[in-house]
Amino acid sequence: MEEKITFTINGVDTTVEVDPEMMLIDVIRDVLNLTGTKRGCDNATCGTCTVVVNGKALKSCNTPVKKVAGTNILTIEGLARGMTLHPIQKSISESGAVQCGFCTPGIIMELYGLLENNANASEQEIENALNKHLCRCTGYEPIRDGALMAQKLIQDRK
Ligand code: FES
Ligand code: FES
Fold first, then answer.
1. Rounded distance, CA 74 to CA 21, Å?
2. Within 13 Å, how many C-alpha atoms sit on residue 12's CB side?
3. How far is CA 146 from CA 36, 138, 141, in A?
4. pTM here?
């Protein structure tokens, strides 16, 4: 049975009327039409569906929407300020880490969850975060470079 579930997404107070067991990715993509969040494996393996919930990276393909009632959700659409990219978007783009781009939104949201909470995360912590994501194009090196560039920009901003 459908229920009303309320949360904030990308700064907008939002109520959806859906089956509470529906996965968050389906609500984000199919109900709210925020298609920047990508569906890859649909079984919590590839990381493409990652969003940030209450400041922490979370896979949306295995999270029932009832679990995010009352939370603050951020998707890739909520990062840029007008034409100004978030430092993580800018760095990942400039490091050559975007080839087909399918993995990119999930990786950016993962790094957001890490670096916006801890700009001084260790290289190992960054590596651990990136290890949750599959990329079939880049060989991962440019993604690592982009993550370190992003960390520097965030440290300099603070
Ligand atoms: S689609 Fe969620 S982890 Fe792959
Ligand atoms: S850039 Fe194509 S999957 Fe990562």
1. 20
2. 10
3. 19, 12, 9
4. 0.97
Strand partners, 3: 18
Task: For domain 87-157, give the fold.
Answer: DNA polymerase; domain 1 (1.10.150)
The response to whether residue 42 sits with its C-beta less than 6 Å from ligand 1 reads yes
Q: Which atom of ligand 2 is nearest to the CA of 97?
A: 1
Say which ligand is closest to the CA of 59: 1
CATH of 3-78, picked from 3.10.310.70, 3.10.20.30, 3.40.50.880, 3.30.980.10, is 3.10.20.30
Ligand nearest to the CA of 41: 1
Q: What is the pLDDT of residues 23-59, one digit of tens each?
A: 999 999 999 999 999 999 999 999 999 999 999 999 9
- What are the φ/ψ torsions at residue 5 (nearest 5 degrees)? -130, 130
Q: pLDDT (tens digit, 9 = 90+) per residue, 82-125?
A: 999 999 999 999 999 999 999 999 999 999 999 999 999 999 99
